[in-house]
Design goal:
CATH superfamily: Spore Coat Polysaccharide Biosynthesis Protein SpsA, Chain A
Shape: globular
Number of strands: 8
Order of helices and strands: EHHEHEHEEHEHEHHEHHH
Helix content: 40-55%
Number of helices: 11
Length: 225
Amino acid sequence: MRLSIIVPALDEAGGIAGSLAPLQPLRRQGHEVIVVDGGSNDGTAALAAPLADRVIAVQRGRAIQMNAGASLASGDALLFLHADTRLPDKAPALIAQALQHRAWGRFDVRIEGRSSWLSLIGASMNLRSRLTGIATGDQAIFATRAAFEAAGGYPDQPLMEDIELSTRLKRLGPPASLDARVVTSGRRWETHGVWRTILLMWRLRFDYWRGVPAARLISRYHPES
């Protein structure tokens, strides 16, 4: 199985090379890395170019960026990997095995950072995902190309796109919930405050569940936008 790894990025110059470096052995094995830049102003695209099979620029927005990458992908399966997230060892083999029995799936996650609360947050995310069948973008969602297309891709919305995609994919079948852990940065939690961020995300999820449009929620997620 050939994997297309799609990495959305925005102003990641400080870390994009470090994020893409672990993917180079996978490229040598024949897997594909596509970086989709959302209009960075710090040279992210230029830094990513030597470390990816394709780098494209599109309008800002994770859903837009990931759909754009998927439309160009040539692999048998798609893996959506945030720029600040690292895959576990043997990730392609784990995905290939999982997709023999499921149409889609995700990894468990470990959040990296200084706060001791981050390990508990990661464990809570993993448990919630197993109970609900809903994955977050931090868990590196993967799917067969057929399943992603049957689900209609990521919805055209600025927030909660991972929840909506998971909901659509669940209609095709339950996810493969892999115990292997991706490692993602805890910078958002630590920058904005761990508990403040947790409470904000709970409120946003609750409001989305009760029908508040994602376009209205985004101003609370990014108050500066």
